[in-house]
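Question (not urgent): is this output format expected?
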Amino acid sequence: MRTEEKLLILALRGETLSRPPFWLMRQAGRYLPEYKATRQDAGSFLDLCYNPDLATEVTLQPIRRFGMDAAILFADILLIPDGLGQALDYKEGEGPILEPIRNVAELSALSMDNLHSRVAPVYETVARLAEELPDNVALIGFAGAPWTVATYMVEGRGSRDHAIVKQWAYSDPDGFGQLMDLLVTATVEYLSKQVEAGAEVVQLFDTWAGALSETAFQRWCIEPVQKIVAQLRQSYPDLPIIGFPRGVGAGYGTFAKTANVNGVSLDWTVPLDWAARELQPHVTVQGNLDPRLLVVGGPAMEAEINRIRETLGQGPFIFNLGHGIVPETPPEHVGRLAEMLRG
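Got this back:
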């Protein structure tokens, strides 16, 4: 099947389909026993990301089980900082730990020089997936959006209030802007290589977009995404691009109308009627089942799946979660979701 005939691509081109294509964020992950076995074989999490054999395997595992309409590359949003030379480690129970970058002087530790050589295994994984995926399954590449990646780079780890990164961004916007400009450049290069290797769609994850005020959201979330989209479209004018500015509430409307993406992924707090009225006339919408309902399963999950489909299925729509699958999700609940969406 040609790229342009795949359901995900058709939806992102604005078509309303008889059944929505579906995939799930973190569909390759810790809820699957086969993933856990592969993860054990890999050693560290970074070793798994940088091992094309194993990264290909875990990307394919949910496709074999559940038959999603798209596979998303198994990697991590912090591979760009790693490629830029920032020390990165993943500690069990703590998540990512980075050597913080907190002022303009410390930016000198970062360089584009070794980015592609460091993350080259990711491009190999994409190329293998392009060969091995079933013909009807689209391949999604991805990166973290600059604001979200910057939060980890500056804070040095995940943060609840993002106090340190906001302090820099608000007190020295020109200096912080240098970090953001570097991340825009690196993200364009990184995603371009993924597309060259065979990615048919790309998604930008702005997980912490909701931490910002309205004006800061415009400057540090929307404007960098606009730059990335514009530069990617210079080389790949037909590339479908999905944005996910999680937690921004009414800001989804501004994002949908101005970010120039093809699709906007919605978190589970977004009212469906509002999304159908305010967003779908401008973009394809993706979402937005609460991942906790996937844990619960049964009538509660099924009723919400039906409600989402009925409300958003009248326009261009991709079924997904409002964020990633959580580890305690029973695989049989994912199987039931897939059965309902294919039916």
